[in-house]
Design brief:
This protein has 5 helices and 18 strands. It is α+β, with helices and mostly antiparallel strands. The strands form 4 sheets. The protein has a 7-stranded antiparallel beta sheet with strand order 3-6-15-8-9-10-11. The chain has a 7-stranded antiparallel beta sheet with strand order 4-5-16-7-12-13-14, with no helix packed on it. The protein is flat. Keywords: Coiled coil.
Length: about 325
């Protein structure tokens, strides 16, 4: 055997030893419950548990305070109603003996029954929205080995950016939560194709805006600089906003808890739509030639009034089928992959 062949053989033997040692280390790690990755996972769960307990305790404390205030305020209001409708009249009837009729009896009983119902209805005003109090933990498989060497990510996420206010984003649930006015935009921009965004209003303050803004106007929006001519959309379905200006006041539709709202962007046609399926409503804004420079767009959402608001992005994508209904067209949407 030549010296060259001997050197090659020694190198192959060394490489083989490296493979053998790495094989043993990997088998040892796979058979151990205490490897580094396992500890990191447990640490993440422990941290979530501690934060969740703190949030639950804080939420429970606030709920107790709110319940005490609710009970006190309701009792005071019902006391005033009872006094105004029954108490004073009963006192007068006692002072003026027999100065009452069957009509008075029925009226007083009606008032007393209604006040009793209002008192007993206090407990039904408590809404235990467990899944909205904390972000529940879930161990999720992030990849699948469908074929050797191929890893497919299966997590589908849509990200928002806060412009003003204090909204909370639960990214894995695509949920936006705020109790005061807020403005948010999509991080993605859109300049070609047709795109839809289906929102479910899980809790509303009856003051919501859905529309678009050009990404060059974002800085003006952050600094509250006017005008912002690239803003187009609708407040509460029917009150149109063009070039950042609201239409003169109109009696716009109310959005109710559980309703869905669908925003559609047709970039090629420079047209946007807002669909309100529960009322078979479809509004559109066709942008004129003088705003052709408005692309690319970002989705713009505003919550305009204080109060608890929960808005969920249920679905989004590029597939929209037109369906014919009497005198107009509506869309059905396929779940995006």
């Amino acid at each position: 055997m030549s010296s060259w062949d001997g050197e090659c053989r020694r190198k192959l033997n060394d490489d083989f030893e490296n493979v053998f040692r790495e094989h043993d280390r990997l088998r040892q790690d796979l058979n151990s419950d205490q490897n580094q990755q396992y500890q990191l996972l447990l640490n993440s769960i422990d941290k979530w548990e501690q934060n969740a307990i703190k949030k639950i305790q804080k939420t429970a404390k606030n709920a107790r305070n709110d319940a005490q205030k609710l009970l006190k305020d309701t009792n005071q209001q019902l006391q005033r109603v009872l006094n105004d409708t029954v108490t004073e009249e009963l006192r007068d009837a006692l002072e003026q003996k027999n100065n009452f009729t069957e009509f008075h009896i029925n009226k007083w009983l009606g008032y007393l029954s209604e006040i009793r119902k209002q008192l007993e209805a206090i407990s039904s005003t408590v809404n235990f929205t467990h899944h909205k109090v904390i972000h529940l933990i879930k161990i999720k498989r992030k990849f699948s080995l469908s074929r050797f060497g191929q890893i497919n990510l299966d997590y589908h996420q849509f990200d928002f950016e806060k412009i003003c206010g204090h909204p909370t984003f639960y990214n894995t649930e695509h949920l936006i939560n705020t109790d005061r006015p807020a403005t948010i935009v999509s991080q993605n921009t859109y300049s070609t194709g047709t795109h839809y965004f289906r929102f479910r209003v899980e809790q509303t303050t009856n003051e919501l805006f859905f529309g678009i803004i050009n990404n060059t106007d974002i800085e003006k929006l952050k600094q509250n600089i006017h005008p912002r001519p690239s803003i187009h959309g609708w407040w509460n379905i029917d009150r149109c906003v063009l070039k950042g200006r609201k239409e003169p006041y109109v009696s716009s539709l109310n959005i109710y808890n559980g309703d869905e709202v669908i925003l559609i962007l047709n970039c090629a046609a420079r047209e946007i739509f807002l669909e309100y399926p529960s009322m078979s409503k479809l509004n559109s804004i066709k942008l004129a030639d003088d705003v052709r420079d408005c692309l690319p767009w970002q989705v713009l959402i505003e919550i305009g009034k204080p109060g608890e608001c929960l808005l969920r992005l249920v679905d989004w994508g590029t597939t929209a089928h037109v369906t014919n209904q009497p005198n107009r067209q509506f869309h059905c949407f396929c779940t995006s992959n």
